[in-house]
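Reading a protein record of the kind used here takes only a little practice. The record below shows the convention in full:
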Amino acid sequence: MKAAVTNEYNETDLIFWREHAPFYDLYSTGQDGDVAFYVEEAQRVASSVLEIGCGSGRVLIPVAQAGIPIVGLDRSETMLSIARQKVAELAPEVQQRIHLFAGDMLHLSLEKRFALVTIPYRGFQIDNLYGDFQRGLFRSGGQQVWVARKR
């Protein structure tokens, strides 16, 4: 799969993720039942999934283990490095279902379209992203699934 992505992190973001990525899985555990929810949604569409903000693979890996091909995108190379380490420990048939890319969701250009695009655990809570996000990541009739939190 070809992907054209850019990563427009500022230096403060880069420093934050380099320092916090090794501990992320310890303090960022998601919400009760969220992984099962995303796995069920992926199984329901039974087609390739794009997970934006895949981080260390907390949701991505269980989706792949459930038999669904998944593409993960994250802005942090450090988080993707952790995800790659986890993926390397999986069975080969699960590894083949996972494709990881570094980049920013607003500057993503993939040849492929997806039946399901997910943004688990607050990755979408950035102002003014919704319109930009919808600019063609979905195949006809595709759907979006993300979790939002009240402030």
About this structure: The two ends are 38 Å apart (CA to CA). The mean pLDDT is 76. The CA atoms of residues 30 and 144 lie 18 Å apart.
